[in-house]
Amino acid sequence: MTVPMMSAKRWEDMLVELADSLFEFIKSLFDYLILHLDSFL
Fold this sequence. Notes:
Layout (H helix, E strand, L loop, with lengths): L7 H28 L1 H4 L1
């Protein structure tokens, strides 16, 4: 499998997508923690 020959733009798009979903995941994780904070304390 030859990966390095992908264009830089394509890599950029992939990174942006990855960062986006990571951000969404962290955001929902924080929302969950804040919602259930009372039960933890």
